[in-house]
Amino acid sequence: METRRARSLRRDATNAERLLWKRLQNRALGGFKFVRQAPIGPYIADFLCRQRGLIIEVDGETHSSAAKIARDAQRTEFLEFRGLRVIRFDNAQLYENIEAVIEVILDALHESE
Length: 113
Fold this sequence. Notes:
- By secondary structure, the chain is of the alpha+beta class.
- The protein has helices at about 1-10, 15-25, 65-80, 90-95, 100-110, and strands spanning about 35-40, 45-50, 55-60, 85-90.
- It has one domain (about 1-110): Endonuclease, Chain A.
């Protein structure tokens, strides 16, 4: 079920996710391999670097309600309990300054060396 949902999410990626994926795919960012829409337990991570245990989440406007914020916090807790790190960006950050986003991701990748 999760695999089917992940395939659907990859196919129907948001513009912000596509923009970031162009910078992450094919080991383009520091030689680190990322996968998109990776199932992890009951959740699907937007982007995952297994080598560094880093998850990148891209949040659209639907993540701004109190209920969604609480659900995201629960999800992050679940993933961190499993030894993964989660960093989040909203769509505006990607559109307005993708270079700054890339720098934050690179810093996070190198933190675990």
